[in-house]
Design a protein that fits this description.
The chain is of the alpha/beta class. The protein is built from 13 helices and 38 strands. Helix 1 runs antiparallel to helix 2.
């Protein structure tokens, strides 16, 4: 029972004082002058005041509240190393059993560091979880917190946390752990394709300086070199970026006997390869309506260095004009097609015909250029079907289709073939989804026979319109119409000429994104996304090898013609290997070189300052590292409820504070001057006063 007194005035306080103060002054004056009946008069005044104040005795029924204790369990990936998971589970079971003996504690168990979001797995953030656990708890009811962790906590404060209760940390792992790790010191985000890229790295060991260690350097899964590194010293590294787009540079060192883990024996850097200026040679056979279409497109690309020649005056033209009056530039054939032909990434012949401008031998040089990895595009016009066609030169060995001599002048809509719907050059062209396509017509097709390679566009009467082929290490494209300029001029609404022409040029120059057969993988958060680009109807499932070496299979579903995708929800951070048929790809899931693995040695240092600031303690769970009662394979301290002013830890025990807070369940009221009792006391006091004054 909790008794207390309360006043519930029958009148407002101002009115009470207006009535009582004059009477009180008169009563005090009577006592001062010792008038007869002044004592009884004063007692009657007190009785009147008490009646107006209406005192009430309150009997409160209260229930004691529990102190809230948070147990934060570190479930981050570094806790999977060695016996840490086993130690954690045994310690948690022991704590639950011991805390269950104390009815005055409300225990909240929180698993931290196991979020599926990649940005929340970059670091072990136990104090954020602790703050969430106490968010709805008044400060006076916080009894304390216990953390089960390896000590690698990345949001630990330098001083006391934001609550006034003891914090205890139970550290998994063992003393004298040994580990080596490697990390990038400098890793540029971008690099030029085919050019050396300067990087630097460092090998770190808990044992300090040691003998040199071999570092294997791999780019996109292929080992390119073995470096010799001095432990603890920054080392320079030079790699060559092979491809445009994303490249994965990986450094790895061998596992050392007795080493804690090899999860941090690898370091990853993602480098986006950027092509240096592409050199394109455009040769226009003669001026025509669409001559500037290719020129304007290539000049609009800042990454392209364009060399353009138009044959305005063929050698056989003889009109008597003196040479010194001609302002034409001589066509530097030897310089372009002999001395510097290897410098060009793409050669385009736009309505070009053999008119003795190029010596016949130079066509052999162009064919050899293609065979060794060059790119050639024939934008054909009526000349390709004539007597002066370049198909009648030694260039024939590089061409994918021979002319029939027929020029079909007939209106048609360029349409995608079945292959064209899957080919990355023509797949999904703007306007191709309808029939007829949502673009303008063309009016001329050059007839060819027995085309090699892949026909991705068809023209009038389903004749080949765009043929793409590989010759040796190089590539050849043939556009069998000179009417593309109609799209550029907006005729009948125009068409996607920029999209089509740019894709053709970049496919010829081996842009990775436009490869017919391509496998890519990427990490989005903690999800591995796989994309298979193929000309087949079903590429089959993808095989995945996780960073820990576990093999898995992912089914690929068709998302659009020529595209199959799949995804895998993962829990491991690291480098994944993906395979499908003869293709392989690498993808890193999760944060690159996450702090979670930058230092995996268990430690007491990070939590020592905040724990001691609250009166708590930091101790290891390994039995050989501390005193205490054994619970399974760990040494757990005893748990003792303590008052707020007492010590909160000892050699073999930890303290959790109890609270004095309680909740009100019921209240009983007993009025002192209520009812007939109060009226009787008041009348008795006034009557005694009158009786005394009347004598």
């Amino acid at each position: 029972m909790n008794w207390s007194i309360s006043f519930e005035p029958l009148v407002s306080w101002p009115l009470f004082w207006v009535a009582i103060v004059p009477l009180l002054l008169l009563a005090l004056a009577g006592l001062w002058f010792r008038q007869r009946g002044s004592v009884l008069r004063f007692i009657a005044l007190l009785a009147l005041g008490a009646a107006l104040l209406n005192p009430v005795f309150l009997d409160e029924e209260r229930e004691a509240l529990k102190s809230v204790v948070a147990v934060i369990v570190d479930r981050s990936q570094s806790q999977d190393i060695g016996d840490r998971t086993k130690q954690t589970d045994e310690a948690l079971a022991g704590l639950q059993e011991r805390l269950g003996r104390f009815k005055q504690f409300d225990v909240r168990m929180v698993d931290a560091g196991k979020s599926e979001a990649a940005d929340e797995r970059t670091e072990t953030r136990l104090f954020g979880a602790l703050e969430s656990a106490f968010r709805d708890v008044p400060p006076s009811r916080i009894g304390g917190a216990i953390m089960i962790t390896d000590g690698e906590v990345h949001d630990a404060p330098t001083g006391a946390p934001d609550f006034n209760a003891p914090l205890h940390a139970l550290i998994t792992g063992n003393d004298h752990e040994k580990d080596r790790r490697i990390r990038f010191e400098n890793a540029p985000r971008f690099g030029l394709v085919g050019k050396p890229l300067d990087m630097s790295y460092r090998v770190i060991s808990t044992e300090g300086q040691g003998s040199p260690v071999d570092v294997r350097v791999s780019v996109n899964g292929e080992q390119v070199s073995v470096e010799h590194a001095t432990i603890g010293q920054p080392m320079k590294l030079e790699v060559t970026i092979p491809n445009a787009g994303r490249n994965i540079v990986q450094l790895s060192i061998d596992h050392e006997p007795g080493e804690l883990t090899d999860a941090n024996n690898r370091a990853i850097a993602l480098v986006d390869g950027i092509r240096d200026h592409l050199r394109v040679l455009l040769v226009s056979g003669e001026p025509h309506a669409g001559e500037r279409t290719w020129r304007n497109l290539l000049k609009s690309d800042a990454s392209v260095d364009l060399v353009h020649f138009t044959i305005l005056r063929p050698p056989e033209k003889q009109d008597g004009t003196p040479i010194n009056e001609l302002s034409l530039i001589a066509f530097p054939t030897r310089e372009l097609f002999v001395e510097k032909i290897k410098d060009f990434d793409l050669i385009i012949f736009d309505r070009y015909q053999h008119r003795d401008v190029l010596p016949i031998l130079y066509y052999d040089y162009i064919s050899e250029y293609v065979e060794k990895g060059g790119a050639l595009l024939i934008a054909a016009g009526p000349e390709y079907a004539g007597e002066s066609s370049i198909a009648r030169t030694p260039l024939i060995s590089a061409l994918p289709a021979m002319p029939t001599g027929e020029v079909v002048d007939k209106a048609f809509y360029p349409r995608l073939t079945d292959l064209g719907q899957r080919h990355p050059v023509t797949r999904g062209l703007d306007g191709s989804a309808t029939d007829p396509p949502h673009w303008s017509r063309w009016f001329r097709t050059i007839g060819v026979k027995n085309p090699e390679g892949e026909v991705v566009l068809k023209g009038a009467d389903d004749r080949p319109l765009l043929v793409l082929d590989r010759k040796g290490e190089g590539r050849v494209g043939m556009l069998l119409s000179d009417q593309g300029w109609l799209w550029a001029r907006g005729f009948e609404g125009g068409g996607p000429h920029v999209q089509l022409y740019r894709r053709i040029a970049h496919w010829l120059m081996k842009e990775p994104e436009l490869e017919e057969e391509r496998l890519t993988a990427d990490g989005r958060g903690m999800v591995l996304e796989i994309r298979r680009q193929t000309m087949s109807d079903d590429p089959g499932p993808a095989q995945v090898i996780t960073p820990s070496g576990k093999a898995m299979t992912v089914k690929l579903q068709k998302s659009e013609p020529g595209i199959f995708t799949g995804s895998l929800q993962t829990t491991e951070i690291g480098l994944y290997q993906v395979g499908n048929g003869d293709l392989t790809a690498l993808a890193h899931v999760g944060p690159i070189n996450a702090p979670e693995f930058s230092d995996v040695i268990s430690t007491e240092d990070r939590l020592k300052a905040p724990a001691e600031a609250t009166g708590g303690s930091v101790r290891r769970l390994a039995p050989s590292s501390m005193l205490g009662n054994l619970s399974g394979g760990v040494a757990l301290p005893s748990i003792v409820p303590v008052r707020s002013s007492g010590a909160a830890s000892g050699d073999d025990w930890i303290g959790l504070r109890t609270t004095n807070d309680s909740s009100l369940k019921a209240v009983s009221r007993v009025p002192l001057f209520g009812g007939f009792l109060g009226l009787g006391l008041l009348l008795l006091a006034i009557g005694s006063m009158w009786y005394r004054e009347g004598r």
